[in-house]
Amino acid sequence: GALSAIGGGPALVRGGATITDAGEGFTGSQVDSRTARSAVGQTADGTTMFVAVEGPQQGRPGMTAAEQARLLRSPRAVPATATDAGGSAQLAVGRRLLGPALYTTSPVQLA
Questions:
Q1: Which of 20, 21, 14, 8 is nearest to 78 (CA)?
Q2: Cβ neighbours of residue 34 under 8 Å, at least 6 residues apart?
C-alpha cells in the first residue's frame, strides 16, 4: 500500500506529454487565470521536482495551468500535478518558507 500520498490537480503532465484538459472538472477560471501556482513532478529517473511560481500577490505575472505544465515538462517531467493556486501557493523546505509569506500558516491535516 501507499506510504504517503498528496492531493491536487489538475494533472499537468502524463506520460511525458503536457495535458490541457484531464477531464477533472476544473473550471476555466481555475486553470486559465494567471496566478501563483505550485506543483510536484517526477522525472523518468525518479527525481522529484517541487515547483512554486509567484503571482500577482507577489508583484509577478503568475502562470496559467498550461504554462505551468510546459514549465514542468521542460526538465523532462513524466508525471506532474498541480498542488495549489492563488495566494496560498507556497513552497517550504524544512522549516524555511521560500518566497514571501502572504498569509499566516495553517496546520497540515493528516488522514
A1: 14
A2: 55, 56, 61, 62, 63, 64, 67
Mean local confidence (pLDDT), 2-13? 85
Pairwise CA distance, residues 81 & 53, whole Å? 14
> What is the distance between the alpha carbons of residues 32 and 63, in angstroms, rounded to a whole number?
8
Helix (H, G, I), strand (E, B) or coil at 104: coil
The Cα 90–Cα 51 span in angstroms is: 9
Q: What is the CA radius of gyration of the chain?
A: 14
Which H helix or E strand runs over 52? strand 48-53
Q: Which uninterrupted H or E stretch holds 84?
A: strand 77-85
Distance CA 93, CA 111 (A): 22
Q: How far is CA 3 from the centre of its chain?
A: 21
Segment holding 79, helix H or strand E: strand 77-85
Whole-number pLDDT of residue 105: 55
99 pLDDT band, cuts 50/70/90, is low
- Residue with cell string 504517503: 4
